[in-house]
Design a protein that fits this description.
single chain; about 100 residues; mainly alpha; 2 helices; rod-shaped
């Protein structure tokens, strides 16, 4: 009888400890929501950065294409990305070629 009560007490303590360990899981669920929100914000910034980078690359290719067309042919080149009011200033040194788009 004493042995079965001791086993029952031991089983009760183990059951109580297990219940306490698994009940603490609810407190850890809030950081995951904050992390997910942070990841969504990071993705939005990443998308905006990628779109801006693509736009700058398109403008750079457009300026390069205009330079090539003007250097190799008698035709004028109309830009797809730059408005008519844009002026492109070119400064050539012995080692570099710098273009400024105003």
């Amino acid at each position: 009888m004493k042995k079965s009560l001791k086993t029952l007490n031991y089983a009760g303590v183990v059951l109580l400890a297990t219940a306490l360990l698994f009940s603490c899981d609810k407190e850890e669920s809030t950081p995951f929501v904050e992390q997910e929100t942070f990841e969504v914000a990071e993705l939005k910034v990443s998308d905006e950065t990628e779109m801006i980078s693509e736009e700058v690359m398109n403008i750079a290719e457009d300026v390069y294409m205009a330079d090539e067309v003007l250097a190799t042919s008698k035709f004028s080149y109309n830009s797809d990305f730059l408005p008519d009011c844009v002026t492109i200033t070119t400064v050539i040194t012995s080692t570099t070629k710098e273009r400024t788009i105003d």
